[in-house]
Amino acid sequence: MAVEKLNLAVLISGNGSNLQALIDACTLLDFPARVAVVISNRPGAYGLERAAKAGIPAITLDHKSYTGRSDFEDALQSALSDYPVDLICLAGFMRILTADFINRWPNKIINTHPALLPKFGGKGMYGEHVHTAVLAAGERISGCSIHYVIPEVDQGPVILQKTVPVEDGDSIETLAARVIAQEHIAYPEAVRMIAEKRA
Ligand code: GRF
Predict the structure, then answer these.
(1) Does 1 have pLDDT greater than 80?
(2) pLDDT tens across 68-114, in order?
(3) Contact yes or no for 51/124 (Cβ under 8 A)
(4) How far is CA 3 from CA 6, 7, 152, 196, in A?
(5) Which of 96, 99, 119, 122 minimizes the number of CB atoms within 10 Å of its CB?
């Protein structure tokens, strides 16, 4: 029996390794989702190439060419409306979305965060800043959180977390590498949970 597929829009800003994990999962026949469109707010983001290679429509909406946040988000909304989108997956997307936009997609936007929320979340906690804070706090365990997006940054309900040890002598890079490997497993798993209404 054919699996009913959830249509994903994946929003990126850079490398797109989490996008790749989703693309790879979607090649499995029994995976209940497909990537309908990839949108980057940064021109030249490597993730756009990953999408193109997989034959997925890849769109650039350079936030710098819009006069403000709401202008940018109107363009985003309009781009999304050209595709059958059931779920928006933020995957290394480095723009904070406004409440107006988020409220247009209730329970339909999820994000991956490279730490164990509710700790080490919020504005300013992105990229290497997160791992810097985890190391500075002397945590022995870190990990990743896939969570619903609500207007309060990084405070939406957690769908799934995976943990990793923080090892003696870890640098930002070694910790980040350990965490992102778990994000690549967790993100497709969370999408599956949502598709199967287990989230
Ligand atoms: C991930 O660790 C994500 O949690 C963080 O930025 C990284 C994005 O990596 N916000 P990629 O673009 O998916 O490779």
Answers:
(1) no
(2) 999 999 999 999 999 999 999 999 999 999 999 999 999 999 999 99
(3) no
(4) 9, 12, 34, 10
(5) 99
Distance 26 CA to ligand 1 centre (A): 19
CB 148 less than 6 A from any atom of ligand 1: no
Q: What percent of the chain has pLDDT over 90?
A: 97
Q: Among 105, 140, 175, give the residue marking a domain's end.
A: 105
CATH number where 13 lies? 3.40.50.170
* 149 and 59 together in one domain: no
Catalytic residues: 113
Domain identity same for 153 and 81: no
Q: Which domain holds residue 32?
A: 1-105
Residue 21 beta carbon below 6 angstroms from any ligand 1 atom? no
Above 80 in pLDDT, residue 3?
no
Neighbouring residues of 21: CB distance < 8 A, sequence distance ≥ 6: 183, 184, 185, 187, 188
